[in-house]
Amino acid sequence: MSRVLYDLCGIDTALRFSPFCWRVRMALAHKGLDVETRPWRFTEKDALSFAEHDKVPVLVDGDTVVTESYDILCYLDRTYPEAPLVGDALAESRARFFKHYAERSLAPPIMAIIIMDLLNAIHPDDRAYFRETREKRFGRTLEEVHSPVRGLSQLDTALAPLRGRLEEAPFLDGDAPGAADYLVFGNFMWARCVSTADLVSNADPVHAWLERMLDLHDGLGRQATRITDIQDAYR
Amino acid sequence: MSRVLYDLCGIDTALRFSPFCWRVRMALAHKGLDVETRPWRFTEKDALSFAEHDKVPVLVDGDTVVTESYDILCYLDRTYPEAPLVGDALAESRARFFKHYAERSLAPPIMAIIIMDLLNAIHPDDRAYFRETREKRFGRTLEEVHSPVRGLSQLDTALAPLRGRLEEAPFLDGDAPGAADYLVFGNFMWARCVSTADLVSNADPVHAWLERMLDLHDGLGRQATRITDIQDAYR
């Protein structure tokens, strides 16, 4: 059966930096499922019209089309019950909190740190679209959002509960990684692929967790192409 | 079988404001278990020596003594499996994140808002102990910790993921409350009992959730004695 994931790419088709696509790539690897990742750019809306959707990730699993990263994780649990990601009803309810924590507590400060790196990593043909949609969303220019020192300080505060949890267990989901880990890890892959900024210090339990996450599934995250792997990426 | 909870009290034995004790009171009510709450003050260490512990909550359930609020919730699930609080292994792992979120993301800004009210609510005989232990813990005087405007701003930021979750479900644990709700709600009962500060606006989904939480279990939280119920509390 064919399995295809439409996956955001940047200046190079190998540069894959979407935090939402990274959730799905890690989740597919967690389930031991092969996938062909198909590079997609922000402005290639037509390529997704079959899914009646306008952004990635889009997973095509045989005859089934699934959109939205969180819904894809739930779909994977329903369809491939081995190695649960979100788990049963109560566990799934709590997994949703990690989604919101990743998107509302971690993403804004990380965005403030990496936004100009992110713009640089995006394909030139996509940059006007990115600027227009994000400036509308934020109500500010990208240059006004850019505030790395404040971002690092706010990220440090936002990481406090993650740190607490990782002082007592190797993964957010306990002895082994699960949906909670992947939901949060996507944000860090986003930053890692487009930027060289250090988001957490080496002494932070979050750092040790990130190293473990990068090693998972034959080093899927660690081997991902970064902006520094691309010749002339900084022009 | 007798069941006793040692429960922190303040200037009046009816004033019960410990966020950790509130977790346990809500959890016991969730299980439908009766309990005698026994008022205890910070400096009455001898009264807890039987438990080889120096702070509350301490639950005495027949012949069993359990300390630490989170451990008490786990104990209740093991001993009274109906109406799960923390749930199975994966759900329980995620419940721990709410414990850290409550203690590390919410408690510090709430402390900055209510600390002088809190001092006023504590029994006069306990105030020197409270000041000494907290100033040592914070590395600052209570007056320096007191920063209500900054606290409200930081609390607003910290509540973002809670707000996201409560926009999609009535409780953090979904259609019905569970450990995640009680772990976080304790902080709000702490503030409610000692202070009149408004922590969230009426329009906030967190506010609507608090109203639901106050109504649970025959209005256990709503009926709790507040500082404003005590004559001459502000002297």
Automatic annotation (TrEMBL), chains A, B:
Pfam families noted in UniProt: GST_C_7, GST_N_3
Domain GST C-terminal: from-to ranges: 88-235
Annotated GST N-terminal domain residues: 8-84
Family matches, as Gene3D superfamilies: 1.20.1050.10, Glutaredoxin
InterPro entries in the record: Glutathione-S-Trfase_C-like (IPR010987), Glutathione-S-Trfase_C_sf (IPR036282), Glutathione_S-Trfase (IPR040079), Glutathione_S-Trfase_N (IPR004045), GST_UstS-like_C (IPR054416), Thioredoxin-like_sf (IPR036249)
PANTHER family the record matches: GLUTATHIONE S-TRANSFERASE GSTA, GLUTATHIONE S-TRANSFERASE-RELATED
Name this protein carries in UniProt: Beta-aryl ether-cleaving enzyme
Organism: Halomonas halmophila
Gene: ligE
